[in-house]
Design goal:
By secondary structure, the protein is an alpha/beta fold. 34% of the residues lie in helices and 15% in strands. It is built from 10 helices and 8 strands. Strands 1, 2, 3, 4, 5, 6, 7 and 8 form an 8-stranded mixed β-sheet that branches. Strand 1, helix 4 and strand 2 form a beta-alpha-beta unit. Helix 1 (19-26) packs across helix 2 (34-42). It is globular, with a radius of gyration of 17 Å. One of its GO terms (biological process) is methylation. InterPro entries: SAM-dependent_MTases_sf, SAM_dep_MeTrfase_SAV2177_type. Pfam families: Methyltransf_19.
């Protein structure tokens, strides 16, 4: 059951492209505006592949964690609902699972009711917040999730929207430090070192729309997992990450993905 009702959404700015709406267009969704479509159409065709690969990785990682008995999820940078959503995947395995969704885009808030349709045994909630204020996110999440038990923190295709001057490493560290042992970090991130020309093109097109990006190398993405135990197969491209399931079709990718566990001694 939902644990709250979203307030009236703030006015949606249709004069500027927004990452969640561009992502929706890349996935073939309808909840975007001409300004978002214009950005999407200027991106290389591989951008649609990356969006699909990100989504598929989230599905596989969430299903695997649910199979391991994880029943609490904090999903930051949720984006516009696209079925199956994380709670639908998880609650098929663990009906009593609790999920907190977080995003800062008003259009996502408009669709929050779809994210709040939980299984009768479980619970979902939505909070309008920015990942750059992790303390506020954690305050709200603690109203729904029990931080004395493992929590899966999901950061899918989010951190490359935080350039280094916004301290993404510090943000992730604050979030992960709040997680008890046995929790997991689920993360995907655009690569700067796999297809450098394409990465440069994508970065430039988003910049023209007023959206700053910070694509990173494998070593830079790996730093987000410092102090954690990476789950096999480690930090790989999104299509290469799978566990206890048939391997996805092999394909080229410019997205790194990984899942890591908070060790028994914590991250300190």
């Amino acid at each position: 059951m939902p644990t709250g009702t979203p307030p009236n959404p703030p006015r949606t700015d249709t004069s500027r492209a927004q990452p969640a709406r561009v992502y929706d267009w890349l996935l073939g969704g309808k909840d975007n505006y001409p300004v978002d479509e214009a950005v999407g159409r200027k991106l290389p065709p591989q951008a649609k592949d990356a969006a699909r690969q990100n989504r598929a990785f989230m599905h596989r990682a969430a299903a695997w964690l649910a199979d391991q008995g994880v029943d609490q999820f904090l999903d930051i940078g949720t984006g516009i609902p696209t079925e199956p959503n994380l709670h639908q995947i998880v609650q098929r395995v663990v009906p009593e699972a609790r999920i907190v969704y977080v995003d800062n885009d008003p259009i996502v808030l408009r669709h929050a009711e779809a994210l709040l349709v939980s299984s009768p045994e479980g619970s979902t909630d939505y909070v309008q917040a920015d990942v750059r204020d992790p303390a506020a996110i954690l305050r709200h999440a603690r109203d729904v999730l029990d931080f004395t038990r493992p929590v899966a923190l999901s950061l899918i295709a989010l951190l490359h929207f935080l350039p280094d001057d916004q301290d993404p490493q510090g943000i992730v560290r604050e979030l992960v430090d709040a997680l008890p042992p046995g929790s997991h970090l689920v993360l995907s991130h655009a690569a700067s070192d796999l297809h450098a020309d394409l990465a440069r093109q994508v970065t430039e097109e988003y910049a023209r729309a007023g959206i700053r990006l910070g694509f990173r190398t494998h070593a830079e993405v790996a730093r987000f997992f410092d102090g954690l135990d990476l789950v096999e197969p480690g930090l790989v491209t999104a299509p290469e990450w799978f566990r206890d399931a048939p391997a996805p079709p092999a394909e080229d990718s410019g997205i790194y993905a990984g899942v890591a566990r908070v060790p028994a001694g914590g991250t300190a």
